[in-house]
């Protein structure tokens, strides 16, 4: 299979990635990553499976990996810095929180 034949499936991969991610930017990244992985690993494609199914598998795995990394970093931020988040909220919404702010700042340091 030639690289040009793989590129013919790009739109299908993009639509599938969009259905997973619900984001056009994320879908574009996943589709591009899928094409790069497919082109670099075309020698491992044995032809027993439909090429489109193989590409969709690569896209799904790329989406899963990206989602896991994104969710981990999001939750890590919330877990590691809860006092910073609370301090920001109180500083933003109340001017009489000096004691609480000092307490939170001592906990952070």
Describe the structure.
The mean pLDDT is 77. With 109 residues, this protein is an all-alpha fold. The chain starts with a helix and ends with a helix.
Layout of secondary structure:
Layout: H1 3-7, H2 10-21, H3 24-40, H4 51-80, H5 82-93, H6 98-108
Helix pairs in contact: 2-3, 2-4, 3-4, 5-6
Keywords:
109 residues; mainly alpha; 6 helices; elongated
The gist of it:
The chain has six helices and no strands. With 109 residues, the protein is mainly α.
Low-confidence stretches: none
Mean pLDDT: 77
Task: Give the CA-based shape.
Answer: elongated
- Sketch the major β-sheet: none
Approximate helicity band: over 70%
List SSEs in N-to-C order.
Answer: HHHHHH
Oligomer: single chain
Strand content: under 5%
State the secondary-structure class. Answer: mainly alpha
Q: What is the number of helical segments per DSSP (H or I, 4+ residues)?
A: 6
Global Rg: 22 Å
């Amino acid at each position: 299979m030639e690289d040009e034949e793989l590129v013919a499936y790009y739109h299908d991969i993009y639509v599938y990635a969009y259905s997973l991610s619900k984001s056009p930017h994320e879908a574009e990244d996943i589709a591009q990553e899928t094409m790069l992985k497919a082109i670099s690993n075309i020698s491992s494609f044995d032809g027993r499976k439909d090429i489109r199914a193989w590409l969709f598998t690569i896209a799904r795995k790329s989406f899963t990996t990206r989602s896991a990394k994104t969710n981990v970093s999001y939750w890590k931020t919330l877990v590691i810095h809860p006092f910073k988040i609370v301090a920001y909220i109180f500083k933003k919404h109340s001017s009489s929180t000096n004691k609480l702010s000092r307490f939170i700042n001592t906990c952070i340091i």
